[in-house]
Task: structure prediction
Amino acid sequence: MNDFIFYFKMGLFHVLDFKAYDHILFLIVLAVVYQFKQWTKVLWLITLFTIGHSITLALSAYGILNVRADLIEFLIPLTIFITGLMNVLTAKKASVGKENQNLFFALFFGLIHGLGFSNYFKIMIGKTSDKFLPLVEFALGVEVAQIIIVLGILLIGALVQSIFSVNRRDWILIMSSIVIGFALQMMFDRVFW
Result:
């Protein structure tokens, strides 16, 4: 039970750590196109991101996949930038099918984000032969943290749109543009060539 709590908390705080805010920024640009009434799609969004994240984390933990850390550190903000840019370019059509694109981004870009934590995770589990349970426990922590973040994003979006009469398109444009600004700075800071 202590191992479960340890790995669960590591997954939880991996996402909720404001020093490692890239995860939160990615969740913002993924979720900003949704509304509360679309909770099933939001649940899929979160789960697909966790699945992508967990696949590459597992491949790395088992020594099957090894990618240069500096490349991954650059690719993570690039995924945030691309998702935010797509939000900006398609904000007008947000209510017509845009969410399906973000489901794809969640899974595919989740693969990249999983590699970002892989070296630390390998150190954390050490030479343990049983890597599967720690991976599952860690993924559950990530999933719960993402639910917390995404519910916060949806709640803030609903409040801003109703209290300040901001329309959905403008909300998507504003939030995505702010995140794009952060992502660009992160990309410039992490240039690896």
